[in-house]
Backbone:
């Protein structure tokens, strides 16, 4: 499969995964919203029904209380009217009785809109009893004082009080029925709440199962992605390590080739040209009796050979300075600084006094090449007038700082091949290279390389210590 096809398959899988996750979370969110809307609707309906039931119950109770009070008052007015010997007071009681009857009729007419059949039948019975009670009182309203005195007590005892008791009994029955209906409606409210609770529990269970499935699927997908990421990370890490090893081998190969070429230039080409130079000197001595033009031409050839010898020696030193192997890192850096300073006029100050004597070969080569490349960059790009190079060695590392006063640049900036090579050289030894620069503020390069642990000094053996004591 080509890289393009693999990328398309990966993009398709990612799109499918995103759509599945969006669908799952959308279902969960929809269920949550629907459950919330249903719960709010049911609770609002229950609250409204509860308020209506309470208002209806209180209204019926109030009307029944007023009706009972009016019936009690009517009985009191009938008694006062029938048993009062004073005609004026009897007339007042009669007028109060008439007003009480009118109020009773008005109250009983308000009970004609009961919603249920039981309430309608009970209130119809109450209306019939009230009407019978009212008709029972009709004859006495036209009695004279003698009739009231003669028939009043009997009429009150035999007709009015039983009818009033029957009417009040029906009112009490209606009140008990109202209370029972209130209890039944409260029970229905409790059932509604229970149904809402069950629906919510079912919805929560469904959402929990959906969320559990979604979390399980997401966890599996994340673990799969994590495995793929770790495998890709291992591949990338392995590739980077291979590239690092390849870069280190290339650097080693380059140094070996430079060393071989420098040795060949110095030993073979240099020695051959030196021999030619000696032969030309002898030829010039042998041509002393000959004309001057011939000797002058030989001298010119000898000068060209001397110039070529010097050029070959410089090339050999640039490829691999022999003093790096013979005199050490500090002498090689001093020679490099003098060469650059003579050719460019840049003042270069080197501080490398505290270097360890046994510096590893790869560290010496790495530091020399980094300093060489840094000085080359200063000469070509920095337009600096001075460069400071400082080498400081500690117990476990060595640091190199190269600072110039050139024009600088804005970091971060993609470096050229020289800077990349400096990074690779420092990284091949497990070190780091940091570049700090600002426009107009110069550039500072700091290299930190770890040093291998020094071998511990050998302890004298017990036998040698004993032998020295005997001596």
Residues:
């Amino acid at each position: 499969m080509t890289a393009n096809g693999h990328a398309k398959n990966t993009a398709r899988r990612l799109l499918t995964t995103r759509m599945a996750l969006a669908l799952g979370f959308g279902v969960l969110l929809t269920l949550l919203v629907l459950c919330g809307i249903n719960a709010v609707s049911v609770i609002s309906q229950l609250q409204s029904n509860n308020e209506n039931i309470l208002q209806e119950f209180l209204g019926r109770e109030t009307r029944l209380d007023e009706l009972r009070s009016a019936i009690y008052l009517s009985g009191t007015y009938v008694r006062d009217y029938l048993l009062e010997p004073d005609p004026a007071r009897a007339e007042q009681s009669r007028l109060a009785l008439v007003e009480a009857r009118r109020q009773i009729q008005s109250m009983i007419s308000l009970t004609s809109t009961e919603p249920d059949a039981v309430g309608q039948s009970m209130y119809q019975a109450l209306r019939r009893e009230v009407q019978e009670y009212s008709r029972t009182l009709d004859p006495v309203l036209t009695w004279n004082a003698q009739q009231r005195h003669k028939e009043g007590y009997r009429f009150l005892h035999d007709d009015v009080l039983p009818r009033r008791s029957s009417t009040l009994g029906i009112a009490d029955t209606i009140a008990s029925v109202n209370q029972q209906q209130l209890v039944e409606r409260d029970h229905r409210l409790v059932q509604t709440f229970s149904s809402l609770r069950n629906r919510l529990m079912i919805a929560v269970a469904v959402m929990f199962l959906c969320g559990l499935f979604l979390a399980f699927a997401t966890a599996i997908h994340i673990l799969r992605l994590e495995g793929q990421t770790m495998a890709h990370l291992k591949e990338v890490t392995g590739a980077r390590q291979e590239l690092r090893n390849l870069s280190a081998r290339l650097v080693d190969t380059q140094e070996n080739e430079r060393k071989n070429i420098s040795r060949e230039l110095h030993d073979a080409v240099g020695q051959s040209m030196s021999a030619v130079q000696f032969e030309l000197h002898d030829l010039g001595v042998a041509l002393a009796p000959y004309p001057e033009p011939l000797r002058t031409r030989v001298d010119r050839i000898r000068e060209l050979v001397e110039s070529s010898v010097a050029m070959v020696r410089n090339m050999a030193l640039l490829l691999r300075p022999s003093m790096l192997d013979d005199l050490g890192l500090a002498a090689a850096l001093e020679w490099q600084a003098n060469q650059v300073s003579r050719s460019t006029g840049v003042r270069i100050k080197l501080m490398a006094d505290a270097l360890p004597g046994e510096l590893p070969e790869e560290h010496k080569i790495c530091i020399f090449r980094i300093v060489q490349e840094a000085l080359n960059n200063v000469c070509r790009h920095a337009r600096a007038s001075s460069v400071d190079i400082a080498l400081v060695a500690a117990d476990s590392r060595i640091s190199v700082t190269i600072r110039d006063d050139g024009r600088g640049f804005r970091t971060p900036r993609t470096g050229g091949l020289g800077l990349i090579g400096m990074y690779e050289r420092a990284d091949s030894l497990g070190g780091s290279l940091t570049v700090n620069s600002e426009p107009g503020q110069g550039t500072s390069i700091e290299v930190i390389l770890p040093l291998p642990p020094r071998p511990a000094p050998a302890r004298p053996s017990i036998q040698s210590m004993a032998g020295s004591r005997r001596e």
About this structure: The domain at 329-450 is CATH 3.30.565.10 (Heat Shock Protein 90). Confidence is low (pLDDT under 50) at residues 460-471. DSSP finds ten helices and five strands in the chain.
